[in-house]
Design the sequence.
């Protein structure tokens, strides 16, 4: 895979809309138009790129 495609993996992020009271997490996978995010609670969810703010 191209390194440019994976730049968000490992970055922390904030969900625009909370999920079950959780909004902070880390991007662990990048699937084209979606991310898999591991929330601070330990849950892993799939979200659209437009639904998260990636922190640098």
Sequence:
């Amino acid at each position: 895979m191209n390194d440019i495609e994976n730049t968000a993996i490992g970055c922390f992020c904030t969900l625009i809309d909370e999920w079950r009271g959780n909004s902070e997490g880390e991007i662990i996978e990048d699937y084209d138009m979606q991310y898999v995010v591991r929330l601070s609670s330990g849950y892993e969810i799939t979200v659209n790129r437009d639904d998260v703010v990636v922190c640098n």
Q: What stands out?
A: DSSP finds no helices and five strands in the chain. The two ends are 21 Å apart (CA to CA).
